[in-house]
Amino acid sequence: MPSPATPAAHGATGARDLTRGPIAPTLLRFALPILGGNVLQSLNGSVNAYWVGGHLGEAALTATANANNILFLLIGAVFGIGMAATILVAQAVGAHDLRQARCVMGTSATFFGAAALLIAAVGMPLSRHILVAMATPQEALPLAEAYLRMLFLSIPFLYLFTFVSAVLRGAGDARTPFLFLLLAVALDVVLNPLLIFGIGPFPQMGIAGSGLSTGIANALALGALLVWLRWRRHPLWIARADWRLFVPKPGILRLLLGKGLPMGAQMVLISVSMLAMLGMVNAQGVATASAYGAALQLWTYVQMPAMAIGAACSSMAAQNVGAQRWDRVEGVARWGVGFNFLLTGALIGLLLLAEHRVLALFLPAGSAALSIAEHLNGIALWSFLFFGVSFVLTGVVRSTGAVLAPLAILAVAMWGIRIPLAYGLQGWLGVDAIWWSFPLSALASMAMTLAYYRWGGWRRAKLLAPGEERGIAVPAEIGALPPAPVCDTANEVDCDLRAAAPA
Asked: What residue range is the signal peptide (predicted)?
């Protein structure tokens, strides 16, 4: 077993004990594969935007921007359940209770699979109605509908791939999700032009081919990941003899919903606010909508460091909460905020220096949208420094199960500040009111989050009630574990978790 002064070694599965070793390098090493995954996803989106916007026109790019905002909303709707499962798994690993982690994995997987199939079945026939409701420009509507229908078809594979990857990171394994995401992105990049333009034996599908390539790539990557988990006998893999773990356990489900829904509501609030912002932008015409869509491509890169560090902080803090290492939880928060300022600030500076050339990749030559995109970036881009602080500290706070205060803070920032400013100040500032609402609301969110982190009661929140130890002892090298016993046999402790009262 590694000594407390040295980082825990990677096991055969790539998992890591995040309760040991110096905090800064451990956090950075864990965050880098997550950051790499975010880079891959953004590059994938940018490559797709290049093919769509550069070859199919501004209306097609506007169509993908509208449809992708709906996809983000749908992912956000169940994001909280995945985060609750990830945090529970991380706390269980930190407390050396593998049985609990596997029970959470089984119930959560069943929930995600059922939710994904339901959303796909309902969403496909309603695609056009959803787009009309969000004021998609008329010239972009048929393209957006064709693209969105393919995205709904892809939802089951997207959901399950994202869920499995997140739970593995909760167990301390950030490397494996990165490698299989690399596979998914490579497949999507290759398939996109083949299906859009009908190259070789592939059918010419236009913008619908871009959406279909995403579904095929994620389906193949998910299948490969599951095969890998089985082949390596990963501790979280549920074998055929243990399939009863997929039967939802009421205690776990109550906990996932009680803690996950408020976290999911945070993503929904962000998504709905972005849709509201998009509606205001769409009302300014195709040029402004295209400029906003191109700027969003840059914004995905700018928020990547904060999102990666926040996700790493959440998993690392949750493992240390499970191990009752509160000194390390505080250290994780400090280093996370510092890394956010360093990495996000550097990226903002680089993008501002090269923004004309970068934005030109997503807009046709001579487009009036290019100058609009440069103008709005100069106002809004810096807001991601403030956003990063909120994201990192929220990741630490929710590692204990405190979920209601971050939800309230976000609601005030988005719907009490951003939307009213963007709408109410247009008579004075014109369209600039929309762009100024981003830094002002992000600054307010950061101030409220800092106050709650310093004086709030999040340290007293709990996901699980204290009590008897119900697992098997887990060595520090997670990957070395033998397969866990089935929880449901007569001689085993029941898998249901005893939830504390919601924070």
From this structure: none
**Residues in the chain, total:** 503
Cα 116 to Cα 152: distance, rounded to the nearest angstrom: 9
Q: How far, CA to CA in Å, does 117 sit from each of 381, 382, 497? A: 37, 39, 26
**Run of H or E including 141:** helix 141-170
Q: Could you give the CA distance from residue 303 to residue 306 in angstroms, rounded to a whole number?
A: 6
CB atoms within 10 A of CB 216: 18
Residue pair 298/358 in contact by the 8 Å Cβ criterion: yes
pTM surpassing 0.70? yes
381 in Cβ contact with 348 (< 8 Å) = yes
Mean pLDDT by 10 residues, the chain (503 residues): 36 62 89 88 75 66 73 71 85 81 87 88 84 74 81 88 89 91 92 86 83 91 94 84 84 83 82 83 84 84 88 90 87 94 91 82 76 87 92 90 89 93 88 92 95 90 49 36 40 38 34
Specify whether the CB–CB gap between 259 and 502 falls below 8 A.
yes
